[in-house]
Write a structure and sequence with these properties.
- By secondary structure, the protein is α+β, with helices and mostly antiparallel strands.
- Among the domains are: about 200 residues, Glutamine Phosphoribosylpyrophosphate, subunit 1, domain 1 (4-Layer Sandwich); about 230 residues, HUPs (Rossmann fold, 3-Layer(aba) Sandwich).
- It is about 45% helix and about 15% strand.
- It is built from 31 helices and 17 strands.
- The protein has a 6-stranded antiparallel beta sheet, covered by helices on one side.
């Protein structure tokens, strides 16, 4: 696990200084670093190494094949590298190291000149990764990202060339102010010219404020994009000449499986399969995934929240390492807001499995003080306190010499575990009603008292009840009504926003799904394509790597994802019970009171923060002066929102957090760089 960056300049441009990119990524790889430059071609690559496999100098990067003119920088892990290595050795390849990096280098060399060779190469990889390969003979650079987006990669392409890095902050020194032509164009686009609007992507900010994260390839910066999960691109002479998808989620399979008498395999599941086979195969694939991802030459630990997913991972991990150290977090005051206290469950699992449990104790004031740092480390604004959980646990793990942590992330996204999955399955009880009646119900739901948990969840279910098809599914991911959000925007920002559709990335994605896929399949596809890569996995990577710790996610092993996708809905959601097949599979290994405990998210007392610990931050970042200077929001509307939340008239804690985080992000990623004549 590492940090990578580099550039490929257009003809005639001066080198940008690759060392500055490398230094910006140093926290991701404190064990080693290196750079490669080809000044004649305007190419440079940087690497910051966190040594996990073959920690010797033989794993140093950039890794170069001088005789073939190929250079590689690689971030991540390839879990099936031993199998690939054996195939290459059988074909005469000799290796100098035990690293998966060298395996990837030779795999590229073996496939680069074959028709569809690169795509075939990528499809062989089971792992988490981003990488860049400079092929001098082809005068081209290949960049790729893993299938589900566990590892991030950002880039900018303009007239100066192409620059990329594992994090946006590594790109900041190279984003100069736009030229005068772009400034004049921006002036015409806005009724009142605001220099920030030249650098900000209004549509992406709109999506962020709607969902609390940015779905798709965009970022709040107009100039920075993400390489999407399962995608790759070729760059030549500083220009992107080809982008292609090398992986599609298994839900895209065109044909509906038919009944068969064949035994189950890792890539198929049959319509007529009985429950016991579904349960047995879930156990088998999860165990294999956990064991496969425990390969490391450094100490390895695990998250243990006390939830089903992390507990299942630990249960199988201890089969390989009986003394695996586990980590959990105890947030003082979280229970005050009706959130289930996780600590007793985590301790129950640790005692049951006989594994050591380290407890990170934090309080509201500490977490509130770290909010600004959280936004900076995340690179993209994300209105969720959960990343702090990962940060604190990773910090303690690193202090204890642990560089790798296993996580239960992804279990909810492949087996169903969120409340929106149950809500979707509950639609059958009212969806048959005439549309005018549904509109009345939808309107009544807006009157529910949002200060009470029950009514917040009921409104989430009924809001958008009259919507149809995919629009209804996407609505479950919203955190604010459209009219309420538009009311918060300034007239200037609404003009800049234009007619941009907040749902377009998701709608375009769902439009390509086979029509026979169920509504639950379609929601899970959104989870796996957007919510995982753009939210959960994004913050997990950024916050763990801020402390120099790699997080692995066994639930997202490609064989397991393939299998889970083919499990019928009735085995995922059964009689209102989510993750039914996983729960049944884990009954021999975990206490039933843990398996069937209430679902709980990260226990942060956000509503209390808004009244107390975050009060000063709100006064600073969302003051009328700050709001008016930025120009995104109407200061009067924001102040009214804060006031009504303070008095308890309404509960808009997450909306206020989203406004706070976008302003923090703008100050760190826009304003500070403007001061230095740089900026996004």
């Amino acid at each position: 696990m590492c940090g990578i960056g580099g550039y490929y300049l257009s003809d005639g441009n001066e080198p940008w200084g690759i060392e500055r990119i490398q230094v910006s990524l140093a926290h991701r790889g404190p064990d080693d670093s290196g750079v490669y430059e080809d000044k004649d071609m305007g190419v440079a690559l940087a690497h910051a190494r966190l040594s996990i496999l073959d920690i010797s100098s033989l794993g140093h990067q950039p890794m170069i094949s001088p005789e073939m003119g190929v250079v590689l920088v690689f971030n991540g892990e390839i879990y099936n590298f031993a199998e690939i290595r054996k195939d290459l050795e059988d074909n005469g390849v000799c290796f100098k190291s035990r690293s998966d990096t060298e395996v990837l280098l030779h795999l590229y060399l073996a496939n680069r000149n074959h028709v569809d060779g690169v795509a075939k190469m990528l499809r062989r990889l089971n792992g988490i990764f981003t990488f860049a390969i400079w092929d001098k003979d082809k005068e081209s650079m290949l960049l790729a990202r893993d299938a589900l987006g566990v590892k991030p990669l950002y880039y900018r392409a303009d007239e100066k060339g192409f620059v990329f890095a594992s994090e946006i902050k590594a790109l900041l020194p190279w984003h100069k102010e736009s030229d005068s032509a772009k400034r004049e164009k921006a002036k015409k686009r806005n009724t009142i010219y605001n220099e920030d609007f030249e650098k900000l992507d209004a549509a992406e900010i709109d999506r962020y404020l709607t969902f609390l994260w940015c779905p798709g390839e965009g970022t709040p910066s107009r100039f920075v994009r993400k390489l999407c999960p399962g995608q790759a691109m070729w760059v030549k002479h500083g220009e992107v000449i080809e982008s292609f998808s090398w992986y599609k989620l298994p839900v895209f399979a065109a044909e509906k499986p038919e009944s068969s008498q064949k035994p189950m395999s890792h890539n198929s599941f049959y319509k007529g399969i009985i429950k016991k086979d579904a349960i047995h195969s879930t156990e088998k694939f999860l165990r294999k995934a956990v064991h496969r991802q425990m390969v490391a030459d450094v100490p390895l630990g695990a998250f243990l929240s006390g939830g089903l997913d992390s507990s299942s991972v630990v249960a199988f991990a201890r089969e390989q390492n009986p003394d695996i150290r586990c980590f959990t977090i105890d947030v003082a005051g979280a229970g005050e807001e009706g959130i289930v206290d996780d600590l007793p469950y985590a301790q129950r699992v640790a005692d049951h499995l006989k594994v050591p449990l380290e407890i990170v104790k934090v309080d509201a004031s500490l977490m509130a003080n770290d909010l600004e740092e959280m936004v900076f480390q995340l690179d993209e604004p994300l209105a969720d306190p959960a990343p702090l959980n990962v940060l604190y646990i990773s910090r303690l793990a690193r202090k204890q010499g642990i560089k790798v942590l296993l996580s239960g992330a992804g279990g909810d996204d492949i087996f169903t575990g969120y409340r929106r999955h149950r809500a979707l399955m509950s639609e059958k009880y009212f969806a048959w009603l005439p549309k005018p009646v549904l509109k009345v119900i939808e309107g009544l739901s807006t009157k529910f008292d949002q200060r009470r948990v029950f009514f917040r969840r009921l409104r989430k279910l009924l809001n958008g009840a009259s919507l149809e098809g995919d629009a209804r599914i996407i609505n479950y991911f919203r955190w604010i009504d459209r009219c309420d959000l538009m009311d918060l925007y300034s007239a200037e920002f609404r003009t800049a926003l234009g007619e941009a559709s907040v749902e377009s990335p998701m709608l375009e994605f769902l439009a390509d799904l086979p029509t026979h896929r169920s509504r639950l399949d379609r929601m899970l596809a959104l989870e796996q394509r957007f919510f995982l890569g753009d939210h959960n996995l994004n913050y997990t990577d950024k916050m763990s790597m801020a402390e120099g710790v790699e997080v692995r996610v066994p639930f997202l092993d490609l064989d397991l994802v393939d299998f889970a996708s083919s499990i019928p809905d009735k085995f995922k959601q059964r009689r209102g019970e989510g993750k039914w097949v996983l729960k049944k599979a884990m009954e021999p290994y975990l206490p039933k009171d843990v398996i069937y405990r209430p679902k709980s998210g990260f226990g942060a007392p956000l509503r209390k923060w808004m009244q107390n610990e975050l009060r000063e931050l709100l006064r600073d970042y969302l003051s009328p002066l700050s709001i008016n200077r930025r120009g995104i929001f109407d200061s009067g509307k924001v102040q009214n929102l804060i006031s009504r939340n303070d008095t308890g008239e309404i509960d808009v804690s997450y909306t206020l957090l989203s406004l706070l985080c976008i302003e923090i992000w703008c100050r760190r990623f826009i304003d500070e760089n403007n001061t230095n004549q740089n900026g996004l």
